[in-house]
Amino acid sequence: MDSQSRLFNNLSISSQQILKKGLKLLGPVTGAYLGSLSSNPESVMIAAAVGDAIAQNMNDFAEKHLSQKESKNISITEIFSIAKILENQDKGGFVNDKLLNNQISGNAYEMYHGILTAAKNNYEDKKLELIGRFYGNIIFIDWLEPYFFHILLSTLNNLNYKQLCILAVIGLHEDFEKQLKSLEDLQGRDNWYETRLIQNELSNMIATGLLEPHNTALMTYVGHRHLNNCRLGLVGELLFKICELDVIDKEDLEDIVNKFI
Question: For labelling, which of 95, 134, 210, 229 has a CA lying 20 to 30 Å from the CA of 4?
Answer without folding.
Answer: 134
